[in-house]
Design a protein that fits this description.
alpha/beta
């Protein structure tokens, strides 16, 4: 069993685990895996790692059933433009440079965070014994535990550059069954050409991926604020067309089982964490 609602340090990076991992009846447990959603968070954006995770989990819980289990793994990103960019880019039109260390962040998720989750859950289950299956009424604030009688299925969510990172991860890794890319920075130089050339990796080809045994195709949630393209900056104004092009490429991608593009009210900074929660809810309802 894995302790929830606390900060852990995994491979030098802080992670806050929350969600609703327990509380299903025996009938509900049969044939299901536990979805784990990785989500990059920068504390420079205003909230602590734990505050952001609990806010999103609360919003998810309000829109899902008590029996909808999930784990939200919110992980810290200290340098947003460095750690989430898939490759280096200088964009004078917006006055920003991007460091291109997305591959290292993805490697940390796959080589450190995922094995740690499995190991911790298995170790604690051996120490505590198999818990009795009950229906839980605990809220997101309470301590909880996670059983490994069933495997995890991994997803990834992100906002802005984090949303682009989530989409890009699906093109180079078979570790994730899907993504929620909210207001993703799809104007990023070379991104759409990369997506058109590569497509999404086929998870059925990766025997080590737990999700490959039950889902051969990906699910992808895209969202965008209706005012995001209404900006005097012509470079950023391409975001609507870029997002629609991404949606069209997903429609043709044989690795995609289901996808959606949802338009929200407001601009880029209108309730970003709430939009992430909406994306994760969609994943939980369509997985």
């Amino acid at each position: 069993m894995l302790q929830m609602h606390e900060v852990s340090v995994i491979g030098g990076r802080r992670v806050y685990l929350t969600g609703r991992p327990g509380g299903m009846t025996e009938a509900d447990l049969v044939g299901n895996s536990i979805p784990v959603i990785f989500w990059p968070v920068s504390e420079e954006h205003g909230q602590s790692l734990g505050e952001a995770a609990k806010y999103v989990a609360t919003r998810i819980n309000e829109s899902t059933r008590e029996t909808d289990r999930y784990v939200l793994a919110a992980f810290e990103v200290k340098d947003w433009n460095l750690e989430l960019a898939p490759w280096k880019a200088e964009i004078p039109e917006i006055g920003q440079n991007f460091g291109g260390e997305g591959e290292e962040t993805l490697r940390w998720i796959q080589d450190a965070a995922m094995p740690w989750l499995q190991s911790e859950a298995a170790t604690q289950e051996e120490e505590c014994g198999q818990p009795e299956v009950t229906v839980s009424t605990e809220t997101v604030e309470t301590a909880d535990t996670l059983s490994t009688t069933e495997h995890f299925t991994y997803y990834i969510a992100g906002y802005s550059l984090g949303g682009l990172f989530a989409l890009w991860a699906l093109t180079v890794s078979a570790a994730f069954a899907g993504a929620a890319a909210c207001s993703a920075s799809q104007w990023f130089p070379g991104w759409l050409d990369h997506l058109e050339e590569k497509g999404l990796a086929d998870i059925a080809e990766c025997s080590e991926n737990p999700a490959s045994t039950e889902k051969a195709n990906r699910i992808v949630y895209l969202s965008l604020g209706g005012k995001e393209h209404k900006t005097p900056n012509p470079f950023v104004a391409t975001i609507l067309d870029a997002t629609k092009r991404c949606d069209a490429l997903l429609e043709k991608d044989a690795a995609v089982r289901k996808h959606v593009l949802e338009m929200n009210r407001g601009g880029h900074f209108s309730d970003p964490d709430g939009r992430v929660a909406k994306g994760i809810v969609w994943i939980l309802k369509n997985r």
